[in-house]
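For the sake of transparency, this paper describes our internal protein records without simplification. Because each token names a local backbone shape, the row as a whole describes the fold. One such record is reproduced below, unchanged from the form in which we store it.
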Amino acid sequence: MWLQLPREIQQTILAKQLRFYVIDANRVAQEQGMGGRINRIMQTCFFAISGILSRQDAVEKIKDSIRKTYGKRGATVVAQNIAAVDDALDHLYEVSLLGLTASSRTERRAPVSPNAPEFVRDILGPMIAGDGDRLPVSALPVDGSYPTGTARWEKRNIALEIPLWEPDICIQCGKCALVCRTP
């Protein structure tokens, strides 16, 4: 996992002596029959790592919340969510940073394409990168409106599965994202 991180992120983790954890929450959710629903899995990890509550108290409160929230949907849904909470802790790993260096050849990607319009590069780019607080108020449109067509530059391309069109079986139903096979 360490080598997949951009060098800038590696340097920050090492300089601040952060604790670094990983989990494949999508895999845990898939194994528990929850599809891509990872919210409870990530919530469990957050409380397990943060120390806000003891791990045992946090897990029990999360499970109580699951029973209350999903109880009307049936025992199967409750059981899936509770199993995902338990499985999350089994798949949460701390990465040891001993002896690691910022050796990645990967650089952090720009938040938006350099081919994007000026407004997207200068205003939305810093916002997407989490640096929106550094923008002066004067940089924003006076009336609060954005130019049209900016959303296409904000796409992050983070889908886990991409449907593939299979022309020999296509009946032009328009539901490609639901039924066509994924790689």
Observations:
- The CA atoms of residues 81 and 134 lie 40 Å apart.
- Residues 24-91 form one domain.
- Residues 55-70 form the longest helix (16 residues).
